[in-house]
């Protein structure tokens, strides 16, 4: 039995783990490590400190399936729709450009429910707060080092974090990359954004009717959503939560600043947009240093094999594009490489 480590419990890691299990069944032991305290990655759903309001999706908001992807990934879409984890987006979104031949879906239980579904299907041994710092080749295995605790040995490793974070790893990865591979990885560029979640008490009613709105006349704020309305879910008396995403330009300008210093600037701009907004019970701020990929790895099949034996494969949206289908494409591509090597 091969022992495979997937680094990252985001969408790419979870789909990769799930498909690996379905393909190889009991021939693999799948282990997933993530440095965060929970799963989701950039599809994370944040719980409020006070449980009387709804959770908030701080990263990805909804899933847009083009006709081509709806067809090529139809089994995964059917699985999510039939289990009630995906539903068509029906709520009004101001400024959302309707794309011909594509459909939008929301997640009634939050975006992380999709990631959690694939992780649970994978039967993987899941560990949080395991921050990988280095990979060392030891004969036919990989020794994987982390910030706290003993390093462990694996027969194969899949890295699914954004490429700039892969390039920060210590050990043998850097030396094993060819000059061309290194150049391709170094060319990857991500946008940065800040996200705010504002949690309100159950008696709060907003004075506007939209579920989400793209903002075009503010330098700081690009998008605002009322989670309760966007998800079209029965929220069982929970208070609404509001999500705010900043613009790429604002993110680039402030990325090196502490999120606690940036939060008041975003709130000030939000009050200009929504002067009647009631006082929230609590606020969470998230800095996405690596938000969405602007320049992906050129001419990539969806993954990069750093070494065939013992297998070391890089995957994630850096190798495709930043959305649900980009992650699925990358996971499928990494799976093909792994199956050939294992
Ligand atoms: C603000 C925002 C809005 C977005 N909107 C949408 C949208 O509406 N629709 C859509 O489809 N997509 C959207 N996206 C893009 C989408 O969220 C991403 O493409 C997708 O979540 C990427 O998944 P991933 O698994 O490849 O990477 P990630 O989700 O980043 O997962 C990588 C995981 O690796 C972990 N990790 C990193 N380094 C280490 C380490 N050294 N050791 C251990 N673990 C590590 C991280 O904690 C993370 O959980 C949005 C993204 C953002 C940030």
UniProtKB/TrEMBL annotation:
- Which Gene Ontology cellular component annotation is one that this UniProt entry carries? extracellular region
Q: Which residues form the signal peptide?
A: 1-17
The record's section on Pfam families has:
Amino_oxidase, NAD_binding_8
Which molecular-function annotations from GO does this UniProt entry contain?
A: oxidoreductase activity, acting on NAD(P)H
Q: Which PROSITE patterns match?
A: PROKAR_LIPOPROTEIN (PS51257)
Q: Which InterPro entries match?
A: Amino_oxidase, RNLS
Q: Keywords assigned by UniProt?
A: FAD, Flavoprotein, Signal
Annotated Amine oxidase domain residues: 103-334
PANTHER family given in the database record: RENALASE
Q: What is this protein called?
A: Renalase isoform X1
């Amino acid at each position: 039995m091969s022992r495979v480590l997937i680094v990252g419990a985001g969408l790419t890691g979870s789909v990769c783990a799930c498909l690996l299990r379905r393909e190889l069944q009991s021939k693999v032991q799948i282990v997933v490590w993530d440095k965060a305290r929970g799963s989701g990655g950039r599809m994370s759903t944040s719980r409020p400190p006070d449980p009387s309001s709804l959770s908030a999706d701080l990263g990805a908001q909804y899933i847009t399936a083009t006709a081509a992807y709806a067809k090529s990934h139809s089994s995964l879409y059917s699985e999510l729709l039939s289990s009630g984890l995906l539903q068509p987006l029906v709520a009004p979104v101001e400024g959302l450009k309707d794309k011909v031949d594509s459909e939008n879906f929301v997640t009634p239980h939050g975006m992380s429910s999709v990631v959690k579904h694939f992780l649970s299907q994978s039967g993987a041994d899941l560990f949080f707060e395991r921050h990988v710092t280095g990979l060392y080749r030891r004969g036919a295995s990989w020794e994987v080092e982390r910030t706290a605790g003993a390093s462990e040995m694996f027969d194969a490793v899949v890295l699914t974090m954004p490429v700039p974070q892969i390039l920060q790893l210590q050990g043998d990865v850097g030396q094993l990359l060819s000059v061309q591979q290194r150049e391709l990885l170094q060319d990857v560029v991500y946008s940065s954004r800040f996200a705010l979640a504002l949690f309100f008490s159950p008696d709060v009613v907003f004075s506007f009717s939209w579920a989400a709105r793209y903002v075009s006349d503010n330098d700081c704020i690009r998008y605002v959503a009322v989670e309760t309305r966007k998800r079209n879910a029965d929220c069982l008396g929970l208070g609404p939560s509001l999500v705010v995403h900043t613009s790429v330009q604002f993110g680039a300008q402030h990325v090196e600043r502490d999120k606690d210093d940036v939060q008041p600037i975003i709130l000030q701009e939000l009050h200009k947009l929504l002067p009647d907004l009631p006082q929230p019970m609590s606020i969470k701020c998230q800095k996405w240093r690596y938000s969405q990929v602007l320049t992906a790895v050129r001419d990539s099949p969806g993954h990069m094999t750093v070494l065939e034996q013992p297998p070391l494969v890089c995957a994630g949206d850096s190798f495709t594009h930043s959305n649900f289908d980009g992650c699925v494409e990358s996971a499928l591509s990494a799976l093909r490489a792994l199956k050939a090597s294992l």
